[in-house]
Amino acid sequence: xxxxxETTLEINLSALAHNYxxxxxxxxxxxxxxxxxxxxxxxxxxxxxxxxxxxxxxDYFAVAYAREGILLREAGIAKPIxxxxxxPINFEEIIDHHLEPNIYSPKILKEFIQVAKAKKLTxxxxxxxxxTGLNRLGFWENDVDFIFEQVKDxxxxxxxxxxxxxxxxxxxxxxxxxxxxxxxxxKIAEALSQKLGHRPMRHMLNTSGVLNYxxxxxxxxxxxxxxxxxxxxxxxxxxxxPVATLKTIISQIHRIEPNxxxxxxxxxxxxxxxxxxxxxxxxxxGIGRQYGNGNAHVLIHGKKAPIIGNVCMDMIMxxxxxxxxxxxxxxxxFGQQKSAEEFASGAKTISYEILTALSQRIKRVIVED
Length: 369
Ligand SMILES: *Cc1c(COP(=O)(O)O)cnc(C)c1O
Known about the structure:
The protein has 12 helices and 19 strands. With about 375 residues, it is of the alpha/beta class. An 8-stranded parallel beta sheet has the order 8-7-6-5-4-3-2-9. Strands 11-14-17-16-15 form a 5-stranded antiparallel beta sheet, with no helix packed on it. Pyridoxal-5'-phosphate binds next to helix 9 and strand 9.
């Protein structure tokens, strides 16, 4: 990699392949693997990631919203795409792009069947989600009879999978709760499969689920964060490789006198002579104000430079008093050598949030090694 010259998010597809192989090694060879590529593949590059994953032989993709799935289809992605959070207004375009809806409530089921009939579909794949404790999206256990009544004489749709989602798969203190969710899901899937007379695929595990509850892998697992290099646990993180590395450069260096202030609202007050560097990266790029005032740092020539004062829309200022650096030098915000999880924890948040917050304004560069 040569000089970046501006704020750049490097997306390492070799790291992605490594993480995929690692996660695959944790499940049985015949268990299907669904790659979650919602939110621009966790803030990276949805199309580049999906193309790479398709090449690696992934079985399924998932996005949150219909628009994301349409972008994948327009880029030529051919594998099945599950839309995790479809809304009735999206049903027609979901069908027109061969996307597969998550059907999560009686209302959504009825309305999707109506559209399927109007469009004269046959055996259109749908996925039924059950709520087993997260209380977010999903049918309740006692909706099974209703579901069967709706689909039994409806050749327009085919129940392709049954799924659920763990509320605390990364938290070993919640093992009993998670196991109860798994047992409830098994019971629901068994009851509905009996009625349907066929066995739709079952899937329940996200990344932490794969790592902590492999016995519940059923016919497929759904992984997002692990593919991007984070496993919600230090020992797992050490075996994964961050896919996204955020770098920037020093735009300008300032010498600050004692009692001067830096940035908006004069939030940083200098207690002595200070040297600051201004970086072309701000809250409009996804580095929220919670990272300011010393809560996070960047690395310049391997040394820590804390963010001082308030984060501006397009810039941050960092303290480089003890770092030998000059205008134009490269800055590592997070990624390889410095995890996004660590960067995020300073602002009391998680890797998922900082990664998906990175705005589309940041230049993306695809790299392999
Ligand atoms: C986002 C999402 C996932 C992926 O979870 P990770 O923790 O990133 O692996 C899996 N399943 C559902 C339903 C999701 O919404």
